[in-house]
């Protein structure tokens, strides 16, 4: 989808662009990005910015070896204000700070709240600037990289395009800093294992994600129908080419049958609070429609979850079948799976309808 058809876009800017030397923010490489944002808004394209750089910006205030994760979180707390100020002074319209963790996105109620805030900010003409809330993240709570965060935000915002600004022109057949014969791939129609295999990890001294997380992000976005670009954020030409409707780097084409928003959220953002092991071998229809699950087909229940939580449904051979909203607690399902109940007793216990919601359910591909 070219710029003329865009109504809303998300732009992700990595640490290397905003804090190129890892000792405070510099607007040097941000001017062309800011100009691109201004040009998009002039064409009535709403923009959401996902910006890294708080840790890189704050690190110089904490000299010496990074002692522990608490120091890194303190760097983020210190650098976040500088990162926001660096962006804010480039625009003559207001910016707004949104700090999130994965906990805010994997909880459906909080995810919906984030969407509402984003839409309200855009309605009033502000530029939302999103970053992970590194000050409070833990391994359990974090997204971990802003490439994947930007894809989750693009989905939440129903964006038409996601532009990931990197320190390289796009996805190459291999890491060009390692393989001098590597070639730029202008277009990716399908993200498969071969594409993932091309992507190496982090190379910049301040980056977190590397190319792997950019491919993961592209997969999340294209499966929601969002055209995704990896472009070189260091060159103004990248943005001039985009403004002319061209592709300056690698474009990942949107999937033809994008997932509905709630199914996409369940597939790519929701985290399972527990696991229900089911017996698809004796009930093969369950593999295609686990919402028909009956208590006697439950093999075991792992973890603790409440009504309305997301659970992972796995076959008793370990294959992941689906992620879905569960209508009963782990306690009741454990009881039901261990009992041999007659139909009447079952009906008395399962008055809330099907065990698994037939609305919020995402059948998983084998590779997920
Ligand atoms: N197949 C690949 N194509 C392009 N770059 C790759 C590939 N594999 C690994 N890389 C490395 O990924 C880097 C970009 O990711 P990263 O280091 O996180 O920087 P940034 O977040 O600023 O984009 C590139 O500079 C490159 O060294
Ligand atoms: N939330 C972190 C950014 C983490 C991250 O993904 O960084 P990068 O790989 O430079 O985009 C920060 O602000 O430093």
Automatic annotation (TrEMBL):
SUPFAM superfamilies: Carbamate kinase-like, PUA domain-like. GO terms for biological process: L-proline biosynthetic process. Its EC number is 2.7.2.11. It is found in: Cytoplasm. Its main location: cytoplasm. One of its GO terms (cellular component) is cytosol. Substrate binds at residues 52, 134, 146. Keywords: Amino-acid biosynthesis, ATP-binding, Cytoplasm, Kinase, Nucleotide-binding, Proline biosynthesis, Transferase. Belongs to the glutamate 5-kinase family. PANTHER family: GLUTAMATE 5-KINASE, ISOPENTENYL PHOSPHATE KINASE. This is Glutamate 5-kinase. The lineage of its organism: Bacteria, Pseudomonadati, Pseudomonadota, Gammaproteobacteria, Alteromonadales. The gene is proB.
């Amino acid at each position: 989808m070219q710029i003329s058809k865009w109504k809303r876009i998300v732009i992700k800017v990595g640490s290397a662009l905003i804090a190129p030397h890892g000792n405070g923010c510099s607007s040097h490489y941000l001017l062309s990005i800011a100009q691109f944002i201004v040009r998009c808004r002039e064409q009535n394209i709403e923009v959401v910015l996902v910006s890294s750089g708080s840790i890189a910006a704050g690190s110089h205030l904490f000299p010496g070896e990074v002692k522990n994760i608490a120091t890194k979180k303190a760097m983020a707390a210190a650098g976040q204000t500088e990162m926001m100020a660096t962006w804010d002074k480039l625009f003559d319209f207001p910016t707004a700070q949104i700090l999130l963790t994965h906990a805010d996105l994997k909880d459906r109620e909080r995810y919906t709240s984030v969407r509402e805030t984003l839409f309200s900010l855009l309605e009033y003409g502000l530029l939302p600037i999103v970053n992970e809330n590194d000050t409070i993240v833990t391994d359990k709570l974090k997204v971990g990289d802003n490439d994947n965060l930007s894809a989750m935000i693009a989905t939440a915002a129903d964006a038409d395009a996601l532009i990931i600004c990197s320190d390289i022109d796009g996805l190459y057949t291999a890491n060009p800093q390692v393989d001098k014969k590597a070639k730029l791939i202008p277009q990716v129609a399908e993200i498969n294992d071969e594409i993932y295999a091309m992507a190496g990890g982090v190379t910049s001294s301040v980056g977190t994600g590397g190319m792997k997380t950019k491919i993961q992000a592209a997969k999340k976005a294209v499966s929601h129908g969002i055209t995704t670009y990896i472009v070189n954020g260091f060159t103004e030409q990248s943005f001039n080419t985009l403004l002319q409707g061209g592709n300056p780097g690698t474009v990942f084409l949107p999937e033809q049958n994008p997932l509905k928003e709630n199914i996409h959220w369940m597939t790519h953002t929701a985290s399972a609070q527990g696991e229900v092991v089911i017996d698809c071998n004796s009930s093969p229809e369950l593999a295609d429609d686990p919402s028909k699950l009956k208590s006697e087909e439950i093999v075991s229940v792992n973890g603790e979850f409440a009504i309305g939580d997301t659970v992972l449904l796995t076959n008793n051979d370990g294959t992941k079948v689906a992620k879905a909203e569960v209508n009963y607690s782990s306690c009741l399902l454990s009881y039901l799976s261990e009992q041999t109940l007659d139909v009447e007793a079952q009906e008395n216990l399962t008055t809330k309808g099907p065990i698994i919601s037939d609305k919020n359910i995402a059948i998983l591909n084998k590779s997920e």
